[in-house]
Automatic annotation (TrEMBL):
This is Trafficking protein particle complex subunit 6B. Signal peptide: none annotated. It is found in: Endoplasmic reticulum; Golgi apparatus, cis-Golgi network. Keywords: Endoplasmic reticulum, Golgi apparatus, Neurogenesis. Its main location: endoplasmic reticulum. It comes from the Eukaryota. The keyword DNA damage does not apply. Pfam families: TRAPP. SUPFAM superfamilies: Ligand-binding domain in the NO signalling and Golgi transport (SSF111126). Component of a transport protein particle (TRAPP) complex that may function in specific stages of inter-organelle traffic. Specifically involved in the early development of neural circuitry, likely by controlling the frequency and amplitude of intracellular calcium transients implicated in the regulation of neuron differentiation and survival.
Length: 178
């Protein structure tokens, strides 16, 4: 192999390793948060699940704030909300998940739907219907990341996610108007 081919192969392998490590770390964080909550209360009801989702969303929020700060350091300022959302779908998403969002839709009134047809953090789960119930706990961190990134840019938002068919996921972002 020539040096260029070797360097290219090394970059691909490093990227794959980074991706696998991030996915594994995420799964372990989710597992840890749920186990800690269950251990402290001796069980798991809907209130406990809500606490876990809130903890994971908060972790994601802080990560999103830090990531967007680094990513926008040398970027020109954004023209409008849509420009910010395009940045989230392309640059931000690519940095975190190694691919862009598949589809961005908006009603031009502050609501955006980001669709990822092969969401990295759901690809390790089986496609059966029984696993759809477990999907929300694997989405909370990502919802928090998007909300944290938008917050650091100056947009308060509510970010929710839904899964109807694994591993496809839709994130709904509603910008809060003051």
């Amino acid at each position: 192999m020539r040096n260029k081919e070797v360097a290219c192969l090394e970059r691909k392998l490093t990227g794959m390793t980074d991706e696998a490590l991030f996915e594994f770390l995420h799964m372990e964080i989710v597992s840890h948060v749920y186990k800690e909550q269950q251990a402290s209360n001796g069980g798991m009801d809907n209130k406990d699940r809500a606490v876990c989702v809130s903890v994971l969303e908060g972790m994601g929020f802080r990560v999103g704030q830090g990531l967007i700060e680094r990513l926008t350091r040398d970027s020109p300022s954004f023209k409008d909300e849509l420009d910010i959302m395009k940045f989230i779908c392309k640059d931000f998403w690519t940095k975190v998940f190694r691919r862009q969002i598949d589809n961005l839709r908006t009603n031009h009134q502050g609501t955006y739907v980001l669709q990822d047809n092969k969401f990295a953090l759901l690809t390790q789960l089986s496609n059966g219907k029984q696993y759809l119930d477990h999907a929300p706990k694997y989405l909370a961190f990502s919802c928090g990341m998007v909300r944290g990134a938008l917050s650091n840019i100056g947009l308060d938002s509510v970010v929710t996610a839904e899964v109807s068919v694994m591993p496809s996921c839709k994130f709904q972002v509603v910008i809060q108007k003051l």
